[in-house]
Design goal:
alpha+beta; 34% helix; 25% strand; D-amino Acid Aminotransferase, Chain A, domain 1; 4-stranded antiparallel beta sheet
């Protein structure tokens, strides 16, 4: 049995999984479809919306459009979203290439950064949120763990906060009401099933502090195994 303990493109996006399928080798974790959808932030959001699951407002920018018509792209973003916003490469993990943008100048820099990694960039509405995590295990009848909360001391949970700095902490269980915890776990399992995940995964959600609303952020089909990960 193969354990594809790999992050990012080619390891987590269905590529290795497809190779293992062709070689008829059994492996742990999501298959080709689940891995690909879990890796692609834009497709993941489309699948969530199609299944009636909540995500923050967002739009997709083609990197080629940004290079050819930057002012038009900025106008489109500002017509739909309000600052702060996040710019993210559509197909990259570990928060690489993600920027928080509080104004137009930072948005331009964030788009340049994200576009340097991917031909597609997700621009997402920022909000005052708590970052929640749930481990999900299983195939036909997946089970969600208790809810954890990540508390980064940096502006947001970026690559440095995840892998370099020791300032972030994971609170388990998160300080939630029973009803909130149940809803987080329910949404996590629904998202897991919606992308056809299998074996294991970590579902990240956002809790809007002002309005109490929950949003699906992303799913990691090969979760991290750091000191503050849900799967150490």
């Amino acid at each position: 049995v193969i354990f594809p303990v790999l992050h990012g493109p080619y390891g987590e996006d269905g590529t290795v999984q497809g190779l293992l399928e062709l070689a008829n080798l059994p492996y742990v974790g999501a298959g080709v479809v689940g891995s690909a959808v879990g890796m692609d932030k834009a497709i993941f959001k489309h699948v969530m919306v199609a299944n009636g699951l909540p995500v923050l407002p967002w739009l997709l920018v083609q990197s080629s459009d940004w290079r050819k018509r930057p002012y038009k792209v900025i106008e489109q973003i500002e017509a739909i979203l309000v600052y702060p916003v996040f710019t993210k490469p559509a197909n990259l993990g570990s928060s690489v290439g993600i920027s928080k943008c509080n104004n137009r100048e930072e948005l331009e820099a964030g788009l340049n950064e994200a576009a340097s990694y991917d031909r597609r960039v997700v621009v997402e509405q920022g909000a005052n949120v708590r970052e929640l995590e749930v481990s999900v295990l299983g195939n036909e009848d997946p089970v969600a763990s208790v809810v954890g909360e990540v508390r980064p001391l940096r502006d947001f949970y970026d690559y440095v906060a995840k892998y370099v700095s020791d300032d972030s902490e994971l609170i388990i269980p998160a300080d939630l009401t029973e009803a909130e915890s149940d809803e987080v776990r329910r949404l996590a399992v629904q998202a897991y099933r919606a992308i056809d995940c299998a074996g294991l995964g970590r579902v990240d959600l956002l809790l809007d502090v002002e309005h109490g609303r929950l949003y699906l952020n992303e799913i990691n089909t090969i979760p991290g195994f750091t000191r503050i990960s849900m799967y150490p």
